[in-house]
Design a protein that fits this description.
The complex is a heterodimer of chains A (115) and B (113).
Chain A lengths: L2 E3 L4 E5 L4 E3 L2 E3 L5 E7 L5 E7 L5 E3 L5 E5 L4 E6 L8 E8 L9 E2 L3 E6 L1
Parallel strand pairs in A: 2-12
Antiparallel strand pairs in A: 1-4, 3-9, 5-6, 5-10, 7-8, 8-9, 10-11, 10-12
Chain B lengths: L3 E3 L3 E4 L5 E7 L5 E8 L3 E8 L6 E2 L6 E7 L2 E6 L8 E8 L8 E2 L3 E5 L1
Parallel strand pairs in B: 2-11
Antiparallel strand pairs in B: 1-3, 3-8, 4-5, 4-9, 5-6, 7-8, 9-10, 9-11
Chain lengths: 115, 113
């Protein structure tokens, strides 16, 4: 079964600093990869996804993630944090070729942005 | 615009009560899902439905059941609520055959006393 590890349940950065949220997955076959964001008291919203093609994926709100097969990683970055980025971020994967395409989620990382 | 709605944002119930959580999507999606979200555990799949009247158990189905009588509506039922079912419940929907992208509702925070 797939597993997803997000290193760091809480990450704190200063406004304007680089955001780096880490995600590693366990799979011998590269899966589909997703990052979702959850703002306070809201559901999850898709930030970006990787299915095929270019390994650097750009998403909404200036976020991007790079799929690195050799490292089984899909880390999320943003060059300059904004106060509005404070939220919880979830990495998720689903198997290729799996008719169900079920999502397996990591434990989440809460991003705090200091003024 | 994609829309998934859940009947309640907050719910307080007593142990032993039967609880219904409703989810409605307006996107004509075939697939629907129920998750629970707990701190540090991420989202865990309770049940899912590929289409009307179809249901499959997820990773943690014990103590829950579901109903999908209409395509747009997916209900989660707690037959006899217990305190360990206090959690945030999230509903999602997805177009069949897509690359896994799911659209989520705002969630229902359930407290069982």
């Amino acid at each position: 079964a797939q597993s997803v590890t997000q290193l760091g349940s809480h990450v704190s950065v200063s406004e304007g600093a680089l955001v780096l949220l880490r995600c590693n997955y366990s799979s011998s076959v590269p899966p589909y990869l997703f990052w979702y964001v959850q703002y306070p008291n809201q559901g999850l919203q898709l930030l970006l996804k990787y299915t095929t093609g270019a390994t650097l994926v750009k998403g909404i709100n200036g976020f991007e993630a790079e799929f690195k097969k050799s490292e089984t990683s899909f880390h999320l970055t943003k060059p300059s944090a904004h106060m509005s980025d404070a939220a919880e971020y979830f990495c998720a994967v689903s198997d290729r070729g799996n008719a169900g395409n079920m999502l397996t989620f990591g434990g989440g990382t809460r991003l705090m942005v200091k003024p | 615009d994609v829309k998934v709605t859940q009947s309640s944002r907050y719910l307080v119930k007593r142990t032993g009560e039967k609880v219904f959580l409703e989810c409605v999507q307006d996107m004509d999606h075939e697939n629907m899902f129920w998750y629970r979200q707990d701190p540090g555990l991420g989202l865990r799949l309770i049940y899912f439905s590929y289409d009307v009247k179809m249901k499959e158990k997820g990773d943690i189905p014990e103590g829950y059941s579901v109903s999908r009588e209409k395509k747009e509506r997916f209900s989660l039922i707690l037959e006899s609520a217990s305190t360990n079912q206090t959690s945030m419940y999230l509903c999602a929907s997805r177009l069949a055959g897509s690359h896994g992208t799911q659209y989520f509702g705002p969630g229902t925070r359930l407290l069982v006393l």
